[in-house]
Amino acid sequence: MNSNRILTFFTLTGIPGMPEKDLWMALPLCLLYSTTFLGNVTILVVIKVEQSLHEPMYYFLAMLAATDLSLSLSSMPTMVSVHWFSWRLVTFNACITQMFFIHTLGGVESGVLVAMAFDRFVAIRFPLHYAAILTHGVTGKIGAAVLLRSVGAVLPVPFLIKRLPFCHSNVLSHAYCLHQDAMRLACADTRVNSIYGLLAVIFIIVLDALILLVSYILILQAVLGIASREERLKAINTCLSHICAVLLFYVPLIGMTLVHRYGKHLSPLIHTFMANVYLLLPPVLNPIVYSVRTKQIWRRIVQVFCGGRVGP
């Protein structure tokens, strides 16, 4: 079967139909990646140096920041090469490697969001037992479980792609490699790839979405059980940043899925835009949301950049 694989590289796509305008992507792309790196590194550094942030809630936030940073690093090489230098060729093995990391980190982000929802549920429902339930050891085990689950689910994908023969077009739809995008170029039966991809999505994304929904139903019940209106508002306020992060992850994902499934008649620009929003927007906005809405992080950032003490 390998003998039928004529191509040894894929051709990436920048802005469909407008290659001469790819340079217009350079400045916003530079701004997006710079903001992503600065924001997520700042979150990680602040959580590391600020002793008051050494709690499960902020450890999970550090996991989210590390995942967003890694996801950006996974997509950046090909995005930059395509939009800055018009280098559109990527070797078969490099494409598979990038594919593995992008899909794995997407699964990790979904899992971390579920862990953060669990953290909020425990904090609101069992405030007196919060420290006893979510110890540092338990937090670390949850993080390891999230990572291992995603790696295990995505690990077969490179092998499923490598077994396929490619003897037609080698042009991908985006400036980075995705399993479903490469799979459609194969000149062989791809039902195994399609079925496994669907099962992996159900096992990670769909399952996590259901868990998040149930978690917030339980959180809402716990909040409504609080007697004081002021305390109810305070409890809800601790969840707002996480709700924003969930929406930033799932809304672009659902939009991209709907466009891919039902928008075949739409312009390729729409497909590219939705895919890039899903990949680039959460890593940029998550640290901004948490920095603005988390007083401890905001105070520390202001203290570092402005100097001196920050009032309560």
Automatic annotation (TrEMBL):
One of the record's GO molecular function terms: olfactory receptor activity
Compartment(s): Cell membrane; Membrane
Membrane association type: Multi-pass membrane protein
Signal peptide: none
Record's keyword terms, sorted: Cell membrane, G-protein coupled receptor, Membrane, Olfaction, Receptor, Sensory transduction, Transducer, Transmembrane, Transmembrane helix
Domain G-protein coupled receptors family 1 profile: 39-290
Pfam families from the UniProt entry: 7tm_4
Keyword Transmembrane helix applies: yes
One GO term of the biological process aspect: cellular response to lipid
Main location: membrane
UniProt name for this protein: Olfactory receptor
Spans through the membrane: 23-46, 58-80, 100-118, 130-155, 195-227, 239-263, 269-290
Similarity comment: family membership: Belongs to the G-protein coupled receptor 1 family.
Any one GO CC term of the record: plasma membrane
This protein's record includes keyword Transit peptide: no
